[in-house]
Amino acid sequence: MISDLSPQTRRDLLTMIGRAGGGLAMYQAMTALGHAAETQFSGPPALSGARAGASVLVLGAGLAGMLAAYELTKAGYKVQVLEYQDRPGGRNYSVRGGDKIVEVGGATQNVAYQPGNYLNPGPWRIPHHHRTLLHYCKAFGVELEPFIQLNHNAMVHRKDAFGGKPQRYKELAVDFTGHVSELLGKSLNAGALDSTVSKEDKEKLIAALREWGALDGDLKFTSNLNVSSRRGYDRAPGGGVNGAPTPSKINGLSDVLSSHVWTQMSFYFNYVMQTTMFQPKGGMDMIGKGFYKQIAKLVRLNTKVTSIKQDDKGVAATWTDTVTGKTGVATADYMVCTLPATILAQLDIQVSDAKKAAIKAIPYSGQVKIGLEMKSRFWEEKYSIYGGHSFTDQAIGLISYPNYDFFKDKPAVLLGAFANGAGGYMLAGMTPEKRIEAALAQGSVFHPEEYRREFMNGASVAWSRMPWILGCCGMWTEESRATHYQNLVSMDGRIVLAGEHASYYGCWMEGALLSSLDAITRLHQRALAA
Amino acid sequence: MKKLILSMALIGASSVAEAQAPARPAAAASAGDAAFGARMLGEASGEQIFTRVCAACHMQDAKGAEGAGRYPPLAGNQKLAIGAYPAMVVVKGLNGMPPIGTMLTDQQVADVVNYVRSHFGNKFKGAVKAEDVKAMR
Known about the structure:
heterodimer, A: alpha/beta, FAD/NAD(P)-binding domain, Polyamine Oxidase, Chain A, domain 2, 5-stranded parallel beta sheet, about 35% helix, globular, B: mainly alpha, Cytochrome Bc1 Complex, Chain D, domain 2, two-stranded antiparallel ribbon, 5 helices
């Protein structure tokens, strides 16, 4: 019983603070204790005590909508969810053999992947600090496995570098670091930086450059066994009489610079791109399915919302069943609207002019992903590449190697394109057949002998062509955030919006969930105060 | 506008050239980002820009498309009668449409607008000029 008075562990202490002061106090305390600065998630919301009979209408059964439905139901609300598609999950989506992909404009693909293989067209990797998502994965029994983010043995290709021949990331990264270190060392030794660097720091820096850049005794970056212990050998170390390795030859500074390898090196520095990353076993949609299991009976699928109204008594959404043509009106006391801004901007919705302007201020990106099924895992057998990404400056952007079924003798789906920006538009504008051809032609630079030979079939998802969303992710600028963000997320009468577009983690599942938690917390406070 | 294109257009295309743009901003990386990038479309005619960019949403026949929402047709669209309007939409974006003009030169914006206004059955008079576009930036 002593723990009631004096907390035994930090966890006990945090629980006490949480009870006494609520989530924000707990978060501040966690931060003070050196926890949690990495996330705004402070545990699932402790919503309870909804007024008897109070109801909430949720639009959209993506992660934001399903989380809202789940937590609001727990809090005591009567919840109904309307979903346009014939499946829950939204952008939390996996494509498998037997699936059909239908685009606006009518292009249809029948996916032919082998059982067990899949493409994650939307989200595909989960940062270790996306604690909200990880929390619900654990709570719903969604099994996670490592996502191989940084693979030093994958490749980097640029048309104008190395005669268009891809290079291993580790070789370029080591050479870049080495050359930069040598140059900085020269500058320091020449006294070029004496006015900005103290004598003591200069000595430390030189020691650092020697170690960090693998420089030799003369502070030179040269081809030797020490450098090869990072970038790889011409002849790898072995055993017995012929065990001695021979060093590999470093690339010259100009060649290394032409590869732009710093783009990849700094990419991996991004907070959201750092290892450790995860993926659900069996496909990303295992998460959506985990949520759906909790709330399936609340969801009406194939339901297109045609207008959204509110007055001082409640909210109403008119809808049309996309299969039967039946129409109806769903009503409730409050609404959580998670429809993407692309769709919402074209809908008759009764909110303030400021919110309407905010909804119209969010352009959407147009990513394209292409999954190519290959007869064998030649990238593993022949190239020693196990997961990770090979980057290119062609439209496909990269190819990425599957993170499951390593070493198996059976077909595997390789991500043959993750295109964005100009490359995304270009691939989206093609027919599905032409996209596959483009992916094969461009991806062949990495594996020229095997790529077409091993190819079996492919499927593509061009997000701008997906009928239910017409885009991939909301894009904010500093200017649009300053003008519109608060207007977008504010509670407007009885309506609150949620989704990745209503967060500072745009395009991430974590953003959708954090946005939803914030929206329903405010909705609940509002409902209790009414 | 500059910031938007820097954070969105991080992937190259076979027709994409390096821009004289500064390095990536310190803004949070989006999940949609990839680590390779070119920020401008590179050399392309009005027709090529239409095929490689506009058609992703407005379709190759410029007739638009409809799902939960719609992409308006550019063929036979009276909103294109005054060239400044489509030029402004390309430069600034509209609703869900990104400001595509940020990866085009002034001349390219004029070229693609003039191409669309004179094809797909459109016969709108007057041509948009690069300097008109410049004034919209």
